[in-house]
Amino acid sequence: MEKNKETVIKELRELFEISNRANGSMEHDGKFLVNKMHMERPEVIDKLQNYFNCTTIKDGYVSVGSISFVYTDFCVCDGSPE
Questions:
Q1: How far apart are CA 44 and CA 35, in angstroms?
Q2: Quick one: CA torsion of 27, 29, 59, 44, rounded to 10 degrees?
Q3: What pTM did the predictor assign?
């Protein structure tokens, strides 16, 4: 199912329980930082894969960044990956 960027961001906020900063994870303008204490990187990747098995972003994509000591980051981007 194809969804617009705003809908995907809203659903990913819910999926990763980013309604407040109590778990240390956050989102701003489609860039997500998932705190390692909240969820380890393999679980983040698994949740993203499961979500995008049946969802695409209209005129967009998700880019998963590198892991840091504290966060796994990913971003909902416009356009297509190059």
A1: 10
A2: -10
A3: 0.88
